[in-house]
Design brief:
The chain is of the alpha+beta class and 68 residues long. 35% of the residues lie in helices and 21% in strands. It has one domain (7-66). The chain has helices spanning 42-50, 52-66, and strands at 7-9, 16-18, 29-32, 35-38. Helix 1 packs across helix 2 (52-66).
C-alpha cells in the first residue's frame, strides 16, 4: 500500500484497507454513530451493518491492547 494513502482497519476482518481519495458512499463503507468505517469487501460491510456494536467493541479492545 502506498504510505501516502489514508488507511483504516476493517472492523469485521481486521484487515488494513485504504480509504478512498473521495469519501463517496459505496458498498464498502458505512457510518455508525457519526463515525465512518471502511471495509475490504461488501461482505464485511454487510456483516457490520447487521451488528455494528459487536465489531466496534472488538475493534476497541484491539486498540486498547495495542496501547498497553
Amino acid at each position: 500500500m502506498d504510505s501516502k494513502k489514508r488507511k483504516h482497519i476493517d472492523p469485521v476482518c481486521l484487515m488494513e484497507v485504504e480509504i478512498p481519495e473521495t469519501d463517496d458512499l459505496d458498498l464498502k463503507s458505512a457510518t455508525y454513530e457519526g463515525n465512518r468505517y471502511y471495509f475490504c469487501s461488501p461482505f464485511c460491510a454487510a456483516a457490520f451493518i447487521n451488528s455494528p456494536s459487536r465489531f466496534i467493541d472488538r475493534l476497541k479492545k484491539l486498540n486498547n491492547n495495542k496501547n498497553k
